[in-house]
Structures are given as C-alpha cells and as structure tokens.
Design brief:
- This protein has 344 residues and is mainly alpha-helical.
- The chain is built from twelve helices and four strands.
- The protein has a two-stranded antiparallel sheet with strand order 1-2.
C-alpha cells in the first residue's frame, strides 16, 4: 500500500485539504489569503514597534496588547507555510513530524491567546472596579510573572499532544480536512484506541478555554454592575467604551474556536465546508482584526501610528525639513499639523 493510503511508516505523510471542488481556482483563492497574512504580520508588527518605542505606552493595557500581538504573529507564521503552499503550489503533503510540530504550536499559541485575553479582562476589571489601586496591583514585575505563568501553562499542557499522537499507527485514509494540522483531526485517522487522546484533549480545552472564558464572563458581569452604579449615563458609556476593543477580540477568538471544537467532536453530520470555513476564521481572522480594532479604538495608539507613517512619508519628500516641530515626548521631528490628532 502506498504512503498516501497507509501511514504506518515514520516517513509517511498526511495530505492537507484546501477548499474541496475549487482546485481550479486555488491561485485566485490564494490572493485574499496572501493579503490577510500581509495585513496580519504588518499590523501586529507595527503595534509591537509603536508600543516598544513609545515610553508613554508602557502601561499594563498596552503591555498585554503587545503580548497579544506576539501570539497573533506566531499563529500567522505557524499556519502560513501549509495554507499558502496548498493554494500557490498545490503542495498538500506534510510529514508526520512536521504535522505534529505544527499542531503543537497552533494549540499552544491558541491557549496562550486565550490566557492573554483573560489577563486583558483582568486589566479592565481592575481599571473600572478598583481604579485607585490599579497602579499598585498591575505592577510590571507582576505583569511579567502573570504573562510567563500563562504562557508556560499553555505550552506545558500542550506538550504531551505530539507524543500521544506519535505512539499511534495511521492505517486509515490520511487526508485531513484542513490546510493545517489539528489534534482532533489527526487522532481520528489513527487505527488505534484514541480514548486517552480524546479525553486529554477535552480536558485541556475545558481547563484552558472553558475556565478562561468563564472568568472573562464573570469579570464583565462585575464590570457591568460597577458601571451601572454610576449616576451619569455619559460616564457609563465612557467606562464601557474602554472595553469595546477587548470584547471584540474576545468574540472574534472564542466564537469560531468553540464552534469548531463542537463540530469536530459532536458534528459528524455537519457539512465539511462549514468546518473548513470555521477553521480559517478561527486561525486567520483574530490576527487580522485585532490590530485593526485596537488601533481604531485606542486614541493614543491611533495617533502614534498615524504619526509614524506620516513622518516617514513626509521625510521622503524633497524639502521635508520644512513644517516640522519638535515632539517633546519623543525628541524627534514631526509635521506640526499631525498634532491636531491629539485633540480628537
């Protein structure tokens, strides 16, 4: 039996899947995927650069945002080779070891993103419910410890997955239904008892995503109760407005992730195309939309991004030294008209 149909040997391969029935237009489909990856990588890189170079943004909220940007970059880089390989070069084969490595990074980074969203919810909870102690609670050493603890939690709990899968023989049809490797997909094509893998996968999903989403929900229940106690409707809206971007990130991440997990485990009769589309939304949309949402909702971040690109554009023009004034915070020259954005 060939390696395509029998994966008992260590050199065997899995076959990844694009969009079934659309093989003739894969090259055209690759265009939006390429744009999504470019926007995701550039957007998150710009967020990281702005936060790193601007001391005024070295606050807990922006530190957590930089953690989120790093995680989104990792997810984009992890899935990009196989997805673009299928649509650009029709390269569907992936070795067992490469598949196990990819699923490890996808799941560990996904769990890490869930943890970071929980930390961002905690940041909003402290800022709104206990503002007088905000600076004393969210100190930089404490933020570093919490971030490291949650990152290690995701990687440690995901670490056994490749080894649990590696002990199997894969004698069934080795075609995966996605353009990348997922634990719940790979274990289904094993010709061994997968009870342990299934239970462990369910356990870590409930422990990570289940608990994180529950604590995020409870945080916003407390936030809502606190905000409703404020007498002025304007103050209520102002307080809630600071959490809109985080709520968008939470919905973008958890909705497709939970839906995809439910479909993989319980939706045996669901259309394959639905699973494929949810898989793309789950891994590609949050890294794409998070920098856009946060840059639009955060005035300070938006101003500095505009200033960065305007400064580079104007400096490339002839006679660019005219019309500049010193930026007191940065010690650099910027066009004087860009300062009007600070007032919006």
């Amino acid at each position: 039996m060939s390696a395509v149909n029998d994966t008992k040997s260590n050199s065997a391969v899995f076959l990844l899947t694009g969009i079934p029935g659309q093989e003739d237009v894969h090259l055209w489909i690759s265009i939006p995927f390429c744009l999504m990856y470019v926007i995701s990588i550039v957007g998150n890189s710009v967020i990281l650069f702005i936060i790193k170079t601007d001391p005024s943004l070295h606050e807990p909220m922006y530190i957590f945002l930089s953690m989120l940007a790093v995680t989104d970059l990792g997810l984009s880089i992890t899935t990009m080779p196989t997805i673009l390989g299928i649509y650009l070069f029709n390269s569907r084969e992936i070795s067992l070891d490469a598949c196990f490595a990819q699923l490890f990074f996808i799941h560990s980074l996904s769990f890490t993103e869930s943890s970071i969203l929980l930390l961002m919810a905690f940041d909003r909870f402290v800022a709104i419910c206990n503002p007088l102690r905000y600076a004393s609670i969210l100190t930089r050493p404490r933020i570093a410890k919490m971030g490291l603890m949650f990152v290690l939690r995701g990687f440690i709990l995901t670490f056994p997955l490749p080894f649990l899968l590696k002990r199997f023989q894969y004698c069934r049809a080795n075609v995966l239904s996605h353009s990348y490797c997922l634990n719940q997909e790979v274990m289904k094509i094993a010709c061994s008892d997968i009870t342990v893998n299934s239970l462990y996968g369910l356990f870590i999903t409930l422990l990570m995503v289940g608990l994180d989403s529950l604590f995020i929900f409870l945080s916003y229940v407390r936030i809502l109760k606190t905000v409703l106690k404020v007498a002025s409707p304007t103050e209520c809206l102002r307080a809630l407005n600071t959490s809109v971007s985080h709520l968008c990130a939470v919905l973008l991440f958890y909705t497709p992730k939970i839906s995809l997990s439910v479909l993989h485990r319980f939706g045996k009769g669901s259309p394959p195309l639905l699973q494929i589309l949810l898989g793309y939304v789950y891994l590609l949309v949050p890294p794409l939309m998070n920098p856009i949402v946060y840059s639009m909702k955060s005035k300070h971040l938006r101003v500095r991004i505009i200033r960065l690109f305007v400064k580079r554009w104007v400096s490339s023009l002839p006679g660019s030294s005219a019309g500049y004034m010193a930026d007191e915070n940065q010690g650099t020259s910027i066009p004087s008209w860009t300062l009007t954005f600070e007032m919006t």
